[in-house]
Design brief:
Blueprint (H helix, E strand, L loop, with lengths): L1 H26 L7 H25 L2 H28 L8 H11 L5 H10 L2 H10 L1 H14 L17 H15 L7 H12 L1 H13 L4 H5 L2 H25 L3 H11 L6 H8 L5 H28 L1
Helix pairs in contact: 1-5, 1-10, 1-15, 2-6, 2-8, 2-9, 2-10, 3-4, 3-7, 4-12, 5-6, 5-10, 10-15, 12-13, 12-15
Length: 313
């Protein structure tokens, strides 16, 4: 258990250091205030899609899709339960209104993308990232449709949820699958695959620099003085992951599926509960507080829970 804990702690500390760098860059005014917007666009339109395309080109085959089909079905079930539980639990944090929607999203979705995509290859190996991306497909579907919709305040035109799926991440999955299944990926010039690999390797560190840069916009004292935020963090990092691990184990899910679920549901709160309220003039302090606290605490909770999970399964 000790070896597993410290092996997991190392990549967590790397990501945490990147977050601290982003925090300092903002606080010391080393970078301009539009840095967060630039990094966010870079992440969502270049780095993350490049990692997805690179991974699917390398590992996506008919055989691998069949092998992971059951895991995707478990993920579909898990995300349905996650959404249901978040709707119930959010009542304890806010009776109604937009604040409750923020808690719904926070309790349903962790930072399964930016942090998960960085941690899985670092801890489980590069080949595991492909299975993790497939496991995340239902989670992405729910986050981009239901999740994105509830984060838009009432009274503002929300548009069709299906249109929200027309984004670089989905296009990257489709392109990667096409190249992998058709065999065209084997004929791509080396400089193309090397470019995707190099860009993809930047995704995790840049995402955490972005996280630190954004949370630095808020007074630290104000963020850590919100009692309910700690309860939400405990649910996000301890209680809900334990529920999903136990449920999947009882349903007979294999070890690989449970490990994929770990990196989806034990990760801290992402930045959407900051970005969306900011875009529509809502309160951003709740999301920023949860992101700050959960990203700090997870440096220890993720290695600890991963070490315990390895003993159990």
């Amino acid at each position: 258990m000790k070896e597993t804990f410290f092996a997991t702690l190392s990549p967590m500390l790397v990501l945490f250091c990147c977050m601290v760098i982003g925090f300092v860059l903002n606080k010391k005014k080393i970078c301009p205030q539009n840095t967060a917007a630039v990094l966010s666009k870079l992440e969502t339109t270049v780095l993350c899609p490049a990692l997805i395309v690179s991974t699917f080109c390398r590992y996506c085959t008919v055989a691998s899709l069949k092998l992971n089909a059951e895991s995707v079905l478990y993920s579909l079930l898990a995300v349905g339960v996650a959404v249901g539980l978040s709707c119930l639990l959010s009542c304890a944090f806010a009776k109604k209104g937009y604040t409750r929607s923020i808690y719904k999203y926070a309790l349903a979705f962790g930072n399964f993308g930016f942090m998960g995509y960085a941690l899985v290859p670092a801890i489980l190996g590069e080949e595991a990232l492909y299975g993790y991306m497939l496991f995340c497909l239902p989670v992405n579907l729910a986050a981009y449709t239901w999740g994105a919709t509830i984060l838009i305040p009432d009274g503002i035109q929300k548009g069709s949820p299906l249109k929200k799926l027309l984004n670089p991440t989905v296009f990257a999955v489709a392109l990667g699958m096409l190249l992998g299944l058709s065999g065209l990926s084997a004929h791509l010039p080396a400089f193309v695959t090397d470019t995707c690999d190099s860009l993809g390797s930047c995704m995790g560190p840049v995402a955490m620099v972005l996280t630190g840069f954004i949370v630095a916009n808020y007074p630290l004292k104000e963020m850590v003085n919100k009692g309910r935020i700690y309860i939400a963090a405990v649910l996000r990092l301890f209680v809900l992951p334990a529920v999903f691990f136990t449920g999947l184990k009882l349903l007979g899910a294999d070890r690989a599926t449970i490990l994929m679920a770990f990196f989806v549901y034990a990760t801290p709160l992402g930045l959407n509960t900051v970005v969306f309220p900011a875009a529509y003039g809502g309160d951003t302090t709740i999301g920023a507080s949860m992101a700050t606290i959960s990203h700090t605490v997870c440096v220890l909770t993720i290695p600890l829970m991963f070490a315990l999970l390895n003993i159990i399964i």
